[in-house]
Amino acid sequence: MALKYSRQRESIKKYLATTKEHPTADMVYNNIRKQYPNISLGTVYRNLNLLVDQGDIIKFTTGDGSDRFDSKTNKHYHFVCNKCSNVSDLFMEHDFIDLINKSAEENFNGEIQGHDILFYGLCKDCQES
Amino acid sequence: MALKYSRQRESIKKYLATTKEHPTADMVYNNIRKQYPNISLGTVYRNLNLLVDQGDIIKFTTGDGSDRFDSKTNKHYHFVCNKCSNVSDLFMEHDFIDLINKSAEENFNGEIQGHDILFYGLCKDCQES
DNA sequence: GTCCTTGCAAATAGTTTGCAAGCCG
DNA sequence: CGGCTTGCAAACTATTTGCAAGGAC
To answer: Do residues B51 and B9 lie in contact, with contact meaning Cβ atoms separated by under 8 Å?
Structure first.
């Protein structure tokens, strides 16, 4: 529980806080390597999982095989473009999020505690081209 | 495109049509092996992907590392129990499904074509124990 | 006979882990 | 110093693929 400071972890945290892509572990690795060429992929994975455990970041998947990481920890959804595969954030009213849970509970024999949604379609850029 | 008959594929199809668990490839493999002890995991994967391509079954993930397969191809959601990890189906009104897409589109700069939802909570059995 | 399908094994992708050395407090 | 953290490499899990033999039509 008592995490010690490490510049590698700080660097990962800072990168996630500033990027808008929702990077995979490998993307994080390649980015941090610019500053710390000796960092290892294992260290990246270890720190990403530590940050997830602490609730500093979240981990999710788009079903493409690798996990993705996001420093925005407030409740929101994700969108994947069917054409360029880029991942974006999609925020919705908390009231509507609750409504989805409530509606699900009406159709389900058990207790709904939450949900994740992955939207797909065409992002603005691909729509225009 | 022209698929030839194979008893292995038929067996996989039949098993998926009758099971209510949402099996991983490995679970399918272990089940089919009772009837065809020599079937290989590669054959199971190949056939599952063929069936997905044909639209006979769907593939989805709960984020636990392995893909799951479902012979119910009509639009519906999935639920994972936080305690026993079992996966169940969760059907909702098509009107509400459309409403979710519409609401998302209001909050997003791009075209929403669809979505998947993974609900989580406690299933009936775990609620009672 | 043609060519799709299979079993087997090797290869690949993503992630985790054991270990000795390094760094924080 | 003690113990968390790192780099490296090996191990693991899930899935895919090359190939020669087998089966469908």
So the answer is: yes
Predicted TM-score (pTM) of this structure: 0.94
CB of B41 lies under 7 Å from some atom of strand C: yes
A39: phi > 0 → left, psi -120 to 50 → alpha, else beta; which?
Answer: beta
Measured distance CA(A48)–CA(A121) in Å, rounded: 29
| Size of chain A, expressed as the number of residues it contains | 129
Asked if the Cβ of residue A46 lies within 7 A of any atom of strand C, the reply is: yes
Quick one: average pLDDT of A99-110?
97
Please give the angle made by the CA atoms of A96, B77 and B15, to the nearest 5 degrees: 175
C-alpha torsion sign, points A50, A54, A58, A59: positive
Please check whether strand C approaches the CB of B127 to within 7 Å.
no
The 3-state DSSP class for residue B10 equals helix
Summarize pLDDT for A23-75 with one digit per residue, the tens: 999 999 999 999 999 999 999 999 999 999 999 999 999 999 999 999 999 99
- The answer to whether A55 touches B58, Cβ cutoff 8 Å, is no
3-class state of residue A19 by DSSP: coil
Q: What structural domains and CATH numbers belong to chain B?
A: 1-73 (1.10.10.10), 74-124 (3.30.1490.190)
Contact B104 A119 (CB under 8 A): yes
A113 interaction partners in chain B (CB closer than 8 Å): 82, 120-122
Residue range B83-95: mean pLDDT, rounded? 97
- Give tens-digit pLDDT for B2-15: 799 999 999 999 99
B 53-82 → A contacts, CB under 8 A: 60-61, 63, 77, 79, 81-82
